[in-house]
Amino acid sequence: MSVQVINAADAIARLAEFDAVIDARTEAEFAEDRLPGAVNWPSLNNEERIEVGTIYKQVSPFEARKRGAMLVSANISRHIGREIMDKPKSWKPLAYCWRGGQRSGALALVLGQIGFRVHVVEGGYKAFRTAVLAALPALAGSLTYRVVCGPTGSGKTRLLHALEAAGAQVLDLEGLASHRSSVLGVVPGQPQPSQKNFDTRVWERLRSFDPSRPVFVESESRKVGNLAVPGALIDAMRASECIRVELPIEERVKLLLEDYDFFVKDPEFFCRRLDALVQLRGKAQVQAWQASVRAGDLEVVVRELLEKHYDPGYQASIERNFSRHAAAEVWSPRSHSHEAMTEVAQAVIPAKAGIQGFQKPL
Q: For the chain, which has fewer Cβ within 10 Å, the N-terminal or C-terminal residue?
């Protein structure tokens, strides 16, 4: 048998060594958050864990352990038949569960008896979560950021994507959070991750960056939808150098109608989302916008949303929160198109690898 217990810090440092990272917890626990690259082999599924817990409380721990052992054995058998019959002896997995190690330990015992070199995370997911939260402040503070600013619809996200395609380091917080950040930013069919999983996604992305090169990030608020951006990261962003993207309002309207095409396709969904603005803009105004949406006048509504809702608060917020915004270099794409954003990205990033900073605007 070959089973080795390692602490969470070692597991994180050695993740690339393992052929598989196996989460032995339930499907619900796995969905909430997990180690990077993990696959889910539940020793007990959602219903079974509840069943065993109920027996433990209502009957006895001994009866619960018997029932649990039967269920765990059957599940591990299915995992072996489904996942490892084609694996060579050199296959090396890392396993973990919640904290105590019973579920991952049972799996590791069987895999070790087969002859695989199995590692188990001491303290399980809970220890990993503690390590992530402890590492985030220093990790966020070790990087240099270039904050992409600009009012709603100016193409900040498009520019980020163009920068990444051109080879820059990019932290797309909205992408990691599955949300467009504004009150209307819910994307149909894309639920937000849990706060724990968002933290893990941010941590994983930050640790992938080269500290000698700048990281481009959008000027987000402290929350993206329902998720809080790690405080140390927000603080570092707000003290960083800024660049500002400017587009005429006509181009901003066109961009938003393209990027929020689900509102165009489903006007009633747009109307339901506008209800969120009643407290801020009043019932009469929101009802007027909803009537215009139903009449097909989406361009009018989007323009008024920019002029009456988004733009008035943007300037004060950006100047209050980003201390270097006033000194930001201004970039004005020729249009809202992806091609125009690519042109700006290629001008922003130095042409020669290894040269840092910005090229002055043309």
A: C
